[in-house]
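Before relying on records like the one below, remember that each one covers exactly one chain. Contacts with other chains, cofactors or solvent are not represented anywhere in the record.
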Amino acid sequence: MKRNVELVVISDVHLGTYGCKAKELLRYLNSIQPKTLVLNGDIIDIWQFKKSYFPKPHLKVIKKIISFATKNTDVYYITGNHDEMFRKFTDFELGKLKVINKLCLNLNEKKTWIFHGDVFDASVQHSKWIAKLGGKGYDLLIVINNIVNWFLDKMGKEKYSFSKKIKNNVKKAVKYIGDFELTASELAIDNGYDFVICGHIHQPQIREVVTKKGSCTYLNSGDWIENLSALEYNNGEWMIFHYEDHQHLLKDDETEEIQDMNNSELLKIVTQFS
């Protein structure tokens, strides 16, 4: 049975890359019935898109998103840096699907500001590390990590994340994340927002930020490369959904098929933006 959720935010899926966990994301999407779905940037990785690699699970995720939009879910596609080519289609609407650069919502009289976050790369120091970990280098790191984790799993040992180890131990990376979260929060406070929601840095988070000018709640939806996380909002409360903690509850239901669009047609649409 599907869970009813008021609002779901996912980001940094990077469809079209080897590191993307499309099957896991599809299981999650098939388990929920959101009233509003916010795709907060880097959903399709145009930077690394290849016609030779866009497998069926990745296409099924796109189908599922379209399926939501053709029914009773408001779907907002917020553009990120890896899918920045979609920015020329800002304010495009197709039924309940809207392409935008940022989203402002009122949740139980709380002002909420949602955007990807790559806009801060020019203003936050030490941002080059994420560009290096992003792109092809990051994708290769994840592929190698997946191979290592396969062997660790066969030996009955705990999985290991190279990327998380780097983020937690490289001072510039730790500082970048801290500066990113503080910059987003200060800007939100200056503009009177109660919640500010970002993606981009692949670091799921919910925390209160207090400055001399006020306070706000900073949230980050994480990613579907290594953290496999999403933000869910229900009854005035936010939570981080971690796939690893709930995968035993998810069923392998097939995505509802869209009769007027097959895989080749979907791939043709994606190719137009590459």
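The helical segments are 22-30, 56-69, 128-133, 135-154, 162-169, 171-190, 243-246, 263-271.
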